Amino acid sequence: MRGLNRTRLGLLAVAFVLVIGVMEVLALKLGSFDFPVPSDQGHPAVADNPGD
């Protein structure tokens, strides 16, 4: 079985770094979206009296 030569290994490393970079940019773009959340509900998200 032939091993990876240095050129192919370098190209794979560059491709891996580019894929990770694109995923990071997409995660930042997705995280910057503002999803509307209804805030006029009758009860808060955290209970005042957790024992009830």
Summarize the structure.
The chain has one helix at 6-31. With 52 residues, the chain is mostly helical.
Task: Describe what you observe in this structure.
The structure is a single chain. With 52 residues, the protein is mostly helical. Helix content is 50%, strand content 0%. The mean pLDDT is 81.
What kind of oligomer do you see? Answer: single chain
Number of strands: 0
Low-confidence stretches: none
Largest sheet composition: none
Q: Give the count of helical stretches.
A: 1
Q: What is the average per-residue confidence, as pLDDT, rounded to a whole number?
A: 81
Q: Helical residue percent? A: 40-55%
The fraction of residues assigned to DSSP E strands is under 5%
Distance between the termini: 68 Å
The geometry reads as elongated
- Radius of gyration, Cα only, in angstroms? 24 Å
Give the SSE string.
H
- Secondary-structure content class: mainly alpha
